[in-house]
Design brief:
Pfam families: HTH_PafC, WCX, WYL. This is Helix-turn-helix transcriptional regulator. InterPro entries: CBASS_pafABC_assoc_protein (IPR051534), PafC-like (IPR028349), PafC_HTH (IPR043839), WCX_dom (IPR057727), WYL_dom (IPR026881). The protein is an alpha+beta fold. It has 4 domains: 71 residues, Arc Repressor Mutant, subunit A (Orthogonal Bundle); 41 residues, no CATH class; 74 residues, Roll (SH3 type barrels), CATH 2.30.30; 76 residues, no CATH class. The protein has 10 helices and 12 strands. The protein has a 5-stranded antiparallel beta sheet with strand order 7-6-5-4-8. A hairpin with a 2-residue loop joins strand 5 and strand 6.
Length: 345
């Protein structure tokens, strides 16, 4: 039997419908048709609440679904008699799902991780699903597995509760880019997990803008006796491409790096990477400010030098010289020790 070519969802009318809704409908469609062999497509469409055209498109999609291998005898099959349809092979979809111990444990661990992730919109639903799976799996998931994210869970819960209550907060926050600690009053918007770090997104009254505050850099939190009052212009960040978004208005720095520091090009968004002399590369990237860039370069080691801008090169040189002078000037001449005597021989 020749199978009709399935059109892509984008090419179909209504192709932008939620994939989850269609998946649920397809999973329900097979047992429905198995219980009603030879049913008219018009009747089935009416029962399922879809148009005849949509039902035919769903049947076309089912026709290319099945078991791994996807050859004859693996795919769901059906027979058409005019406007009537009958499922002739269901690929086992009518059988209840049975999880192996490894599958059950993996699913439980994933749900526990999801429940602990800041920013989950419906945590209660995740916990209900987890409870049902743990109850059904029984001893399969009895292994002592504990899921903890690499964040301060107490502080995350404290902030999550404040967001849920809609209260304003006073926080003591360390800003790494400027190497300073400040006190701010914020109006929380939501909790997020990005790149393995937990963030509180909030309207900062000091900056008069939406800011992301890393939870591990919040030293203290006080819940104020006033509701959060973010202004209408407060809009959440688009974090689909990460927290840091390089832009032309940020400072551009160029570093000359050796082979051992090429990892920089994999961990930071670089605008330009060029081959230099020998094994050296010239790497250009945007930074939040030169203060952060200075500390970044000083922590990289001798295989990295600043090519531009000159202001950054001078800052790095000055701080390196100051550090060397501090090491070279002891507070007081220590008395001779056995180790010192041995070293002087």
């Amino acid at each position: 039997m020749t199978r009709p070519a399935a059109r892509s969802a984008a090419a179909r009318p209504g192709g932008n419908r939620a994939s989850a809704d269609r998946l649920a409908r397809l999973l329900n469609l097979v047992p429905y048709l198995l219980a009603r062999p030879g049913i008219e497509i018009a009747e089935a469409a009416g029962d399922l609440g879809v148009t005849e055209r949509q039902l035919r498109e769903d049947l076309e999609l089912l026709w290319v679904c099945g078991l791994p291998g996807y050859g004859p005898g693996d795919l769901i099959d059906m027979a058409f008699d005019g406007d009537r349809v009958t499922i002739t092979y269901d690929a086992g979809i009518d059988r209840p799902l049975r999880l192996t111990p490894d599958e059950a444990l993996a699913l439980v661990v994933a749900l526990r991780m999801l429940a602990e992730t800041p920013g989950v919109t419906n945590r209660e639903a995740v916990e209900r699903a987890l409870a049902k799976i743990e109850d059904a799996a029984g001893d399969l998931v009895a292994a002592p597995v504990e899921v903890r994210l690499p964040v301060d869970s107490r502080r995350v819960e404290e902030l999550r509760a404040a967001v849920a209550r809609g209260q304003a907060l006073r926080i003591t926050y360390y800003t790494a880019a400027r190497d300073e600690t400040t006190e701010r009053v914020i109006d929380p918007l939501r909790m997020l997990m990005v790149g393995g770090q937990a963030y509180a997104e909030a309207w900062c009254r000091r900056a008069e803008a939406v800011r992301l505050f890393r939870v591990d850099r919040i030293d203290a939190v006080t819940e104020l006796d006033e509701p959060a009052a973010a202004p209408p212009q407060a809009r959440p960040y688009d974090l689909s491409e990460g927290v840091f978004r390089p832009s032309p208005d940020l400072p551009l720095i160029t570093l000359r790096i050796g082979r051992g520091e090429r990892w920089i090009t994999e961990y930071y968004p670089c605008e330009r990477v060029e081959a230099g002399d020998g094994d050296q590369w010239l790497v250009s990237l945007r930074v939040t400010d030169l203060g952060w860039a200075r500390r970044f370069v000083l922590g990289l080691g001798p295989d990295v030098t600043v090519a531009a801008p000159g202001e950054l090169a001078e800052q790095v040189r000055a701080q390196a010289v100051a550090a060397l002078e501090a090491y070279a000037t002891p507070d007081a001449a220590p008395s001779a020790t056995p180790a010192a005597s041995m070293a002087s021989r």
